[in-house]
Amino acid sequence: MRVGVVGQGYVGLTAAVGLAEQGHVVTGIDCDPARVAMLAKGRMPFEEPSLELPLAAATDAQSLSFVTDLADLEVPVDAVVVAVGSPPTPSGRPDLRQAGAALAGVMALDPLPGLVVVKSTIPPGTSSGWLAGRWGERLADRYVYSPEFLNQGAAIEDWRHPARLVAGLTDAGLLPVVRELYRGIDAPLVVTDPTSAEVVKYASNAFLATKVSFVGDLITLCEGTGADIDDVLTATGLDPRIGTAFLRAEGGYAGSCLPKDTLALRHWARLTGRPLPVIEAVIAANQAQQLRTVRIIEEGLGPARLLAGDAIVAVLGLRYQPWTDDLRDAPCMTLLPELQTIGARLRVFEPTLTPGQITTFFPGIEVAAGLEEALTGAAAAIVLTDWPQTVNAPWPQLATLMETPRLVVDTKNCLPADMLAASPLRYHSMGPRAHTTLSPASPPHIAEHENASPKQTPRPGPRIP
């Protein structure tokens, strides 16, 4: 098939590369000329390690090319995939102007493609509004809503080995074309109507957000009882009814999907008068979890010292995961301004950003070139990113550079707790941790299970029917 993919962000580029791998001839469309120029050379415009080699291979093989406008397509296409952004407005409502403009461009093509697939995240009822309203049967006869379920850091593997494919459509005659588009992918195919497919996307992310917020309650429970949070989460996650994914003790959920989609659901609920109390509770719990670190710093250093402006707090990392440069809704965006409001003097170490970039995000803070510079004279340190240079640092020696109380807040539970306990540092993890390493003579321990990240282990599923 000849396929056009509108939008070359995280989802669109993954779709374009994945479809090219499956043997389709793909044209990626993006309105940013600089991005298109980079992609045409096989270079990534953002950080996603899993896509670098497949992108280069697809462009070298000439199965994937790029243009800046749908009108620039040289030949008619059999299918168009719309994967543009739907960013949240201040109220949480998704902004659908990009998706609407992309569909308008598709519907202006002559001839029309036989298949129009929308992957952008859109609120329930949006597809039916488009189908019944603006474009009617001209779009309904070729329309499929097929949401994406990608994890940053493992995008192409998630495309190749999804847990499921979802196709929301009104015309069952489109199924053979849908199967052809997704040829070579072994996964269950759920065929439903477009509105149900829209809800599936939100339901998945809302449930994952619920797991993360529930872990916040477990952290509080473990802090109140002295239970080892690592062991509690490991044992809980080994229950196959629960699973280990997204069951990790850290400072709440973040990124480009879970915050956006839970806020969108809350906005929909309030707009329609249909309460979603669990979603409301999840959002409130996540906000409290993100601010837990502020409370720890304020209690550890004391309000008087903070207000005096002489307490340096080192912030180690700004990314919420090392494998993504996407800072949308990263914990730092909430945490750092809150720390500034209580008087903390912030000094940031982030190895992937220039000082100018950091101060653009956070005016008025200091920037450190390395860990030693960040920690020298600091009364507290907050680990926001589990960078290897931070996790493997000689913390007993670094402690001598800090001022009392030498408080270290580990929002990722990634530091070696036993080493820090033997140092002059005051180590505060997300919930009590009894140990992180064992000697060969120690009894078996399963704390190194797949709680390390929310990425899923790819596994092939049943063949598409």
CATH superfamily of the largest domain: NAD(P)-binding Rossmann-like Domain
- Please report the first level of CATH classification, the CATH class of the largest domain: Alpha Beta
Could you say which overall geometry the principal axes of the C-alpha atoms support? elongated
- Count of distinct strands: 14
CATH architecture of the largest domain: 3-Layer(aba) Sandwich
Structural class: alpha/beta
Tell me about the largest β-sheet.
8 strands, mixed
Tally of individual domains: 2
Could you list the spans in which at least 5 consecutive residues all have pLDDT below 50?
Answer: 436-465
The CATH topology of the largest domain is what? Rossmann fold
Instruction: Tell me the Rg in angstroms.
Output: 24 Å
* Count of alpha/pi helices: 19
